[in-house]
């Protein structure tokens, strides 16, 4: 296993919440997802996830720019193109089950 570090801000904040964890294992993607946080706080869940994922894409683009010198705007464009293609014509099925609660 090769887990990522927990960001320092999340370590400092007693109210921090892990929203998403994604792994590549057994030749596929495996995720744990915290759904319902926004819904439980009076917001629409789907648009809030859109904002969360957009922020995540920006973090990826910034990391690739810092690590490899790749243009952040070009990276965002490439991610969005790939995302659109994958949603329109998936290379694999999303399988699994949703389980409520924490482990």
Task: Offer a few descriptive terms.
12% strand; 4 helices; 103 residues; mainly alpha; two-stranded antiparallel sheet
Protein model, in words:
This protein is mainly alpha-helical and 103 residues long. It has four helices and two strands. It has helices at 8-12, 37-40, 45-68, 72-88, and strands at residues 20-25, 28-33. It has a two-stranded antiparallel ribbon. Strand 1 and strand 2 (28-33) form a beta hairpin. The longest helix is centred in the middle third of the chain and has 24 residues, at 45-68. The radius of gyration is 16 Å and the shape is globular. It starts with 7 loop residues before the first helix and ends in a 15-residue tail after the last helix. The model has no long low-confidence stretch (mean pLDDT 94). This is DUF5076 domain-containing protein.
Number of helices: 4
Poorly predicted parts: none
Radius of gyration: 16 Å
Order of strands, widest sheet: 1-2
Structural category is mainly alpha
Please bin the fraction of helical residues.
40-55%
Proportion in β-strands: 5-15%
Overall number of strands: 2
- What is the mean predicted local confidence, pLDDT? 94
Roughly how many Å apart are the termini? 18 Å
3D shape: globular
**H and E order:** HEEHHH
Largest sheet: number of strands, sense, barrel closure:
2 strands, antiparallel
Protein name: DUF5076 domain-containing protein
Pfam family, one: DUF5076
InterPro entries: DUF5076
